[in-house]
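Fold it.
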Amino acid sequence: MKTLKILTTVAIFGLAVVIGVMAYTNVENTESESFSDQESSTNTTAIKPPVKSKGYDIGDIATDFRLKNIDDSMVSLRDFPDADGYIVIFTCNHCPYSVAYEDRIIALDKEFKTQGYPVIAINPNNPESYAEDSFENMKKRAGEKGFTFPYLFDAGQKIYPQYGATKTPHVYLLKKEEGNNVVKYIGAIDDNHKDANAIKNDYLRDAVNALIANEPIKQTKTVAIGCSIKA
């Protein structure tokens, strides 16, 4: 009987030791896994993605580009040596805001290109997102509306991020200064896309007229209202 008690005690003690070892090992493994996860998370967040350009601000120098026009020619700002500056407008076919401004953009080009500020329109959208904005449809739309200005396709969407355009339409008014294209106005065409007869603030027209008259632009930045550019 005494021997049985001793064996029972030894068995219980041995079982307790085994359970203790297993519990310790499990805790150690859990802590190791938690640390590894934390370390992995720390390493991941420590690697920051490259900072994207915020685009141009007033006074910045805009780089030139070379984009395909609806007549299949390649167009750059340097192709207009007699220009005093440029009205660069990011626009497209499908956006109702852009469509609402088409006649006004044509009028702006007719009014100002003879005074040194031609319109240069650029379609920044990915046609895979909107087939209506394909290059072939750009040709059709330009023909239907009788565009009087270059209508360029931003193939690969490389130019609009440089400018910082986010909407269609989005305007960048440039002026030539010492061989550079300096940004003078950024934003909306005017304050009423719905009704051209109800405009109270003709932002772009006023800015161009100020440059022509060698006067300061009263409002150099406004918020562009329109459709988001489709990547």
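The chain has two domains: 1-48, 61-228.
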